[in-house]
């Protein structure tokens, strides 16, 4: 978000998921862009659950969404549920009916499909022909006496709708090319558009940031705001994320869900960094704080092309965050894992971590028990005899290996690898100059003697 995009008054933004599954990284991209815009502008962020479909909406998915967003670092200022706001939508519908903008229709899906095919055959756009507007009151009574109930359409004004999109720039949709949208089903339930606009108006939403698949919806929604006499928010339609394969993401399939990324041990800021920066002019890199990320979330720099979310890139960002993480940030997580050693241990091992939980492996290497791997018992015994006296510090490893080199004539890999295998049981790991003082004299001697310690 550039300084030119910042509103003159504190903005109010919202993220409006349907609780029909676990949210994925594409949903998180939208949530982050809204939350960061609000943060940067000193405004408010609303989490609104679009849960008016009782058959598909689940409270457990809503709860999971709140938990996953909190893990990511997003804390809403307000949480609302559309299922608790039905009186507002009923009042909104009555206002639209009174204004002549919401009208009843009685065609079945089969009848509409037949008309669509006829229009296509005649070379006409397959939009609703507004036949219901010609029905008289007597016509409607007769139809309803047959058991039919109306669905309600919003009457669009046939004009070009234009807006300045914060991502796409000057945008336009010819409303005359659209069907009057159905806002209320035959059973009286609401489709997405009416509750969404009613809530945006009631909650004072100033900016709507969402995926580019909603661009056409914007023309309809602007007319709805105008019909209700409500301020029209600014719109921004960002590019969509796909999997690295190019496949679209879906809550239904669980593709790249935040829950799965969280359970894999990734750092939330690694996920947030990639979700926000990928597919933009900003270089993808690990960002340590949400405030810093808010400064990088430039809506005008987002590409128009779909962006691929590469889990390999996510691993790189995660490692970068861990390798630079100060001890003060790591300390609570280390304590939760039962890891001691303080700052000395953290600075020794952080450069070898791919996941934070990997620190537990190196804590076991330091504190034991470790089964040593002895390639040459005589060399190990001779090396043990040359261990310097305590206390040990940063120079102990250098002094010890110099003494072993002089005594045995070994150097390079032939010197260092057998010592690493004996001391850690592994052929790789953090710099032994840092690990050796943490392992300590007693465990070092025992391991060089072939003992599990």
From TrEMBL:
Q: Which GO terms describe its cellular component?
A: cytoplasm
Keyword ATP-binding in annotation: yes
| Pfam families with a match to the protein in the record | Anticodon_2, tRNA-synt_1c
From the record, which residues define motif 'KMSKS' region? 248-252
EC primary class: ligase
The UniProt annotation puts motif 'HIGH' region at: 17-27
Q: Kindly state which reaction or reactions the protein catalyses.
A: tRNA(Glu) + L-glutamate + ATP = L-glutamyl-tRNA(Glu) + AMP + diphosphate
Which annotated residues bind ATP? 251
Q: Domain Aminoacyl-tRNA synthetase class I anticodon-binding, which positions?
A: 391-449
Glutamyl/glutaminyl-tRNA synthetase class Ib catalytic domain boundaries = 13-315
Among Gene3D superfamilies, the record links this protein to: 1.10.10.350, HUPs
Q: Which molecular function term from Gene Ontology is one that the record holds?
A: glutamate-tRNA ligase activity
Any single GO BP term: glutamyl-tRNA aminoacylation
UniProt entry keywords in alphabetical sequence: Aminoacyl-tRNA synthetase, ATP-binding, Cytoplasm, Ligase, Nucleotide-binding, Protein biosynthesis
Query: What is its subcellular localisation?
Result: Cytoplasm
Enzyme Commission identifier(s): 6.1.1.17
* The family this protein is said to belong to: Belongs to the class-I aminoacyl-tRNA synthetase family. Glutamate--tRNA ligase type 1 subfamily.
What does the protein in this record do? Answer: Catalyzes the attachment of glutamate to tRNA(Glu) in a two-step reaction: glutamate is first activated by ATP to form Glu-AMP and then transferred to the acceptor end of tRNA(Glu).
Question: What is the annotated quaternary arrangement, including any partners?
Answer: Monomer.
Q: Can you say what this protein is called?
A: Glutamate--tRNA ligase
Q: Which species is the source of this protein?
A: Enterovirga rhinocerotis
């Amino acid at each position: 978000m550039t300084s030119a995009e910042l509103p003159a008054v504190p903005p109010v933004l919202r993220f409006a998921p349907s609780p029909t599954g676990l949210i994925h990284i594409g949903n998180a991209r939208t949530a982050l862009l809204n939350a960061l815009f609000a943060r940067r502008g000193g405004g408010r962020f609303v989490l609104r659950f679009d849960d008016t479909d009782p058959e598909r909406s689940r409270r457990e998915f809503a709860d999971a969404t709140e938990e996953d967003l909190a893990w990511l670092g997003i804390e809403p200022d307000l949480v609302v549920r559309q299922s608790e706001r039905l009186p507002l939508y009923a009042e909104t519908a009555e206002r639209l009916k009174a204004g002549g903008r919401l009208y009843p229709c009685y065609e079945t899906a089969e009848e509409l499909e037949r008309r669509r095919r006829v229009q296509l055959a005649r070379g006409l756009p397959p939009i609703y022909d507004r036949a219901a507007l010609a029905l008289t009151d007597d016509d409607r009574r007769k139809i309803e006496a047959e058991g039919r109930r109306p669905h309600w359409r919003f009457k669009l004004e046939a004009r070009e709708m234009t807006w300045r999109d914060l991502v796409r720039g000057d945008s336009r949709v010819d409303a005359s090319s659209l069907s009057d949208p159905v806002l209320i089903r035959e059973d009286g339930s609401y489709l997405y558009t009416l509750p969404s606009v009613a809530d945006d108006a009631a909650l004072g939403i100033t900016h709507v940031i969402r995926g580019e698949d909603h661009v056409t919806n914007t023309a309809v929604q602007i007319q709805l705001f105008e019909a209700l006499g409500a301020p029209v928010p600014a719109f921004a339609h960002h590019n969509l994320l796909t999997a690295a394969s190019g496949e679209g993401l879906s809550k239904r399939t669980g593709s790249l869900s935040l829950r799965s990324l969280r359970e894999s041990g990734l750092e939330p800021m690694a996920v947030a960094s990639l979700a926000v920066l990928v597919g933009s002019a900003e270089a993808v890199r690990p960002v340590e704080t949400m405030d810093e990320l808010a400064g990088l979330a430039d809506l005008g720099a987002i590409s128009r092309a779909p962006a691929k979310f590469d889990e390999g890139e996510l691993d790189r960002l995660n490692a970068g965050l861990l390798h630079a993480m100060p001890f003060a940030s790591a300390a609570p997580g280390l304590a939760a894992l039962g890891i001691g050693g303080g700052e000395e241990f953290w600075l020794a091992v952080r450069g070898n971590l791919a996941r934070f939980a990997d620190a537990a492996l190196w804590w076991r290497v330091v504190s034991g028990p470790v089964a040593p791997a002895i390639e040459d018992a005589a060399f190990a015994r001779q090396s043990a005899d040359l261990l310097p006296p305590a206390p040990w510090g940063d120079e102990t490893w250098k002094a010890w290996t110099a003494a072993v080199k002089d005594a045995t004539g070994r150097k390079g890999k032939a010197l260092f690898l057998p010592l690493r295998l004996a001391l850690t049981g592994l052929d790789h790991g953090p710099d032994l100059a840092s690990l050796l003082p943490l392992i300590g004299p007693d465990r070092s001697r025992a391991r060089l003697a072939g003992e599990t310690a």
